């Protein structure tokens, strides 16, 4: 059976802003609130929630985090052609 994951992310234009938001999250800031305020992705309105997806549905750099790195930890900044992402995998099966 193919893997499925659920993740949320914050997409911003600069690595500097992504790093600052990551530091804010580490200090206890709410990921969803920061996504609603800062993310340039339409998913920002839903707190960055991307729902469920399978490998290959997202760009490779994104997939590498979601399907290979630690679950529930905030990873990034991850650069893609869209900008800089902070990515949190909620679960993976």
What's the N-to-C terminus distance? 9 Å
Q: Specify the biggest β-sheet.
A: 4 strands, antiparallel
What percent of residues adopt helix (DSSP H or I)?
25-40%
Broad shape: globular
Number of helices: 3
Strand order of the largest sheet: 2-1-4-3
What is the structural class? alpha+beta
Give the ordered list of helices and strands.
EHHEHEE
Number of strands: 4
Low-confidence stretches: none
Strand content: 25-35%
GO cellular component, one term: cytoplasm
Protein name: Peptidyl-prolyl cis-trans isomerase C
Organism: Thalassomonas viridans
Domain PpiC: 7-91
Written description of the protein model:
- With 93 residues, the protein is of the alpha+beta class.
- It is 31% helix and 32% strand.
- The protein has three helices and four strands; from the N terminus they run βααβαββ.
- The chain has helices at 15-26, 31-38, 60-68, and strands at 5-12, 49-53, 74-80, 83-92.
- The protein has a four-stranded antiparallel beta sheet with strand order 2-1-4-3, with helices on both faces.
- Strand 3 (74-80) and strand 4 form a beta hairpin.
- The model has no long low-confidence stretch (mean pLDDT 97).
- It is found in: Cytoplasm.
- Belongs to the PpiC/parvulin rotamase family.
- Its main location: cytoplasm.
- This is Peptidyl-prolyl cis-trans isomerase C.
- Residues 7-91 form the PpiC domain.
